[in-house]
């Protein structure tokens, strides 16, 4: 009895700091924000109330849908690109190399700050940037390509660059659990390399896959700095709109309501992605008989 | 064309960079037998099995299965299946789906898969376990699922890579009996890799003893035990006493060897020996006869006899093992415990002797 109790106390002691941190800095503010989303704002003042006005105002504006669509598009494109690019790299690192050199080289890009990388892409993609000048000197184009910069393309490219190491880290650690002997067992039982991938490797690193995809998706779709600096006029997203409500318009309730609507949209994407993997038979813990 | 030999290896050599782990191995495996690749770790037995399975390519040499050259076929195209050391059961599938894995890839119809899987689960006595997840199984059960998953594909040869290494001793002996039963019921050829001489002797029709990438000796367990052809083989299978000495005289079928103060008469082993050449003699502990010497009445060493003193007595239930210190070597003597109890006491002077044909002459 005593032993069990001590173990329990030990467990609580280990969990407590992170739980407290999350409680104070995430759960409490989120609840407050949720409550706030039902309030009203007048001349920069918050008036406690219980109204759905903020939600209905957002949902009745076509601009909100457009901007949310932009945000989701940024998130989905970035997530698909990032996972699509980092999975083969992770596979190569785990199964084809012995050391971790390549892995560390990719992680090194984390050593530069987020903003620095955004500005670096501005330099590369700009009218007088690396790509445009090279293409012009080669005579392939006569005018600089304006679509390179200040477009969703620039946003997605930069976000992919930023998110790639995150996704790689998650996928490498997920793939490391898929020991070589599982791959060999599948080969031995008659699976081709493709079948090994779809029937063993992908289902076994399901959590890493969902984690990498959602992580990338949520951060990219919610990001308001990259689209603001690189996205141009067509690249406005809900994130920017929400940030503006808090920073300039001073309408916290409206911003909070939009934030929760965006959260709901993310949840739908999550459920959709999980359902998709299940339909593709890539989800583990599924029985294929009965 | 099929041959009575189900697997044939011709001059199989395997090198990893500068390190050669298999040297020019020739081996044939017969239809239906249990053949064990036995040897210490690093002897190349696992690599040899992986070459048969298709996980490693040979550097030189050929592998045929049922008469067809498979040297360049990937594992999924070879008619063999393997039981892995740590089973490698897929954790994302339940027991049924693990066993059905190979048949689904072959696109068998659903009903036939169900029948085959159920039949195989019954064979390994896990008929009711189809719905279990892998993490819910004990080590012995996981072992059975791994067997079922391989055998359900009706392989020409079943490869077993130290399948019992992860199990504790009691279950291991039970599983050995199970393996024998399953072998009898299916008639599948087994190639079994182990470093454990007990597993090898209990299970095998034939043992291939390997050392440093070469085959040391091939034979039935009984042959290997009674007629080891090298010092390595004599030492690897069972307990043995090794005496060394120089050849005094060699006749057609008998060799005389000076061992310490006495002379040992031993059957010639066919190999040419020169007078004065140093050779070894292997004598099994149970092949000795030991008699008590009268106190003070030391008889001196005679032919095929060594006098000494009992140094240690180890009681092992049905057997008693004595260590006898002689003038040349401390030798082990094993006897079945008699109804009168332990016969010799520590410190007693004794004479150990043996029949000439109980010793084996070893020249390398």
TrEMBL record, chain A:
The keyword tRNA-binding does not apply. It is a multi-pass membrane protein. CDD domains: TM_PBP2. It comes from the Bacteria. Keywords: Cell membrane, Membrane, Transmembrane, Transmembrane helix, Transport. The chain crosses the membrane at residues 12-40, 71-94, 101-120, 153-175, 196-219, 254-277. PROSITE patterns: ABC_TM1. It holds the Pfam family BPD_transp_1. Residues 68-273 form the ABC transmembrane type-1 domain. SUPFAM superfamilies: MetI-like. It is found in: Cell membrane. Its main location: membrane. Belongs to the binding-protein-dependent transport system permease family. CysTW subfamily. This is ABC transporter permease.
From TrEMBL, chain B:
It holds the Pfam family TOBE_2. GO terms for molecular function: ATP binding. Keywords: ATP-binding, Nucleotide-binding, Transport. Residues 7-237 form the ABC transporter domain. The keyword Transcription regulation does not apply. InterPro entries: AAA+_ATPase (IPR003593), ABC_SmlMolc_Importer (IPR050093), ABC_transporter-like_ATP-bd (IPR003439), ABC_transporter-like_CS (IPR017871), Mo/tungstate-bd_C_term_dom (IPR008995), P-loop_NTPase (IPR027417), Transp-assoc_OB_typ2 (IPR013611). The keyword Nucleotide-binding applies. It comes from the Bacteria. Belongs to the ABC transporter superfamily. This is ABC transporter ATP-binding protein. The lineage of its organism: Bacteria, Pseudomonadati, Pseudomonadota, Alphaproteobacteria, Hyphomicrobiales.
């Amino acid at each position: 009895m005593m032993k069990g109790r001590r173990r329990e106390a030990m467990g609580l002691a280990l969990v407590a700091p992170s739980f407290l941190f999350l409680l104070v800095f995430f759960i409490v503010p989120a609840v407050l924000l949720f409550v706030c989303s039902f309030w009203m704002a007048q001349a920069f003042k918050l008036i406690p109330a219980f109204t759905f006005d903020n939600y209905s105002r957002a949902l009745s504006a076509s601009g909100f849908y457009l901007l949310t669509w932009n945000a989701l598009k940024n998130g989905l494109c970035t997530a698909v690109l990032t996972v699509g690019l980092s999975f083969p790299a992770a596979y190569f690192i785990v199964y084809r190399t012995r050391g971790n050199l390549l892995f560390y080289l990719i992680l090194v890009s984390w050593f530069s700050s987020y903003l620095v990388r955004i500005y670096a892409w501005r330099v590369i993609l700009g009218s007088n940037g690396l790509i445009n000048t090279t293409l012009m000197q080669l005579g392939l184009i006569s005018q600089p390509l304006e679509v390179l910069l200040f477009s969703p393309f620039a946003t997605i490219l930069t976000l992919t660059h930023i998110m790639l190491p995150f996704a790689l880290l998650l996928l490498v650690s997920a793939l490391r659990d898929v020991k070589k002997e599982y791959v060999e067992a599948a080969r031995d039982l008659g699976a081709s390399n493709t079948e090994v991938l779809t029937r063993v490797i992908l289902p076994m690193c399901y959590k890493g896959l969902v984690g990498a995809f959602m992580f990338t998706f949520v951060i990219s779709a919610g990001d308001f700095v990259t689209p603001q600096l690189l996205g141009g006029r067509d690249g406005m997203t809900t994130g920017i709109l929400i940030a503006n409500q808090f920073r300039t318009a001073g309408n916290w309730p409206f911003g909070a309501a939009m934030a929760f609507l965006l959260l709901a949209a993310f949840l739908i994407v999550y459920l959709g992605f999980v359902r998709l993997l299940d339909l593709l038979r890539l989800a583990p813990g599924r029985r294929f008989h009965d | 064309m099929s041959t009575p030999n189900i697997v044939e290896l011709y001059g199989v050599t395997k090198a990893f960079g500068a390190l050669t782990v298999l040297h020019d191995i020739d081996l044939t495996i017969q239809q239906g037998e249990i053949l064990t690749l036995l040897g210490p770790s690093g002897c190349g037995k696992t690599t040899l099995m992986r070459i048969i399975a298709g996980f490693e390519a040979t550097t030189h040499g050929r592998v045929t299965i049922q008469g067809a050259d498979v040297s360049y076929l990937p594992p999924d195209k070879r008619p063999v299946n393997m039981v892995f050391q740590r089973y490698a059961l897929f954790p994302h599938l339940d027991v049924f789906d693990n066993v059905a894995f190979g048949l689904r890839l072959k696109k068998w119809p659903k009903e036939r898969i169900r029948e085959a899987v159920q039949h195989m689960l019954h064979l390994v006595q896990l008929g009711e376990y189809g719905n279990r997840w892998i993490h819910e199984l004990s080590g012995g059960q996981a072992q059975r699922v791994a067997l079922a998953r391989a055998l359900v594909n009706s392989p020409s040869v079943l490869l077993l890579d130290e399948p019992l290494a992860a199990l504790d001793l009691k279950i291991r002996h039970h599983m050995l009996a199970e393996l024998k039963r399953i072998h009898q019921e299916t008639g599948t050829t087994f190639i079994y890799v182990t470093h454990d001489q007990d597993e090898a002797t209990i299970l095998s029709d034939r043992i291939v003893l390997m050392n440093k990438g070469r085959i040391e000796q091939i034979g039935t367990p009984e042959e290997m035990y009674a007629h080891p052809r090298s010092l390595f083989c004599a030492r690897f299978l069972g307990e043995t006493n090794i005496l060394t000495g120089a050849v005094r005289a060699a006749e057609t079928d008998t060799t005389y060897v000076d061992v310490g103060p006495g002379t040992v008469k031993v059957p010639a082993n066919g190999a040419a020996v020169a007078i004065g050449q140093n050779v070894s003699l292997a004598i099994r502990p149970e092949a000795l006869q030991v008699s008590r010497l009268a106190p003070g009445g030391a008889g001196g060493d005679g032919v095929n006899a060594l006098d000494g003193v009992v140094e240690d007595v180890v009681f092992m239930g049905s057997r008693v093992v004595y260590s006898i210190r002689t003038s040349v070597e401390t030798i082990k003597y094993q006897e079945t415990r008699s109804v009168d109890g332990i016969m010799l006491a520590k410190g007693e002077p004794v004479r150990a002797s043996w029949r000439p044909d109980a010793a084996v002459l070893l020249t390398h």
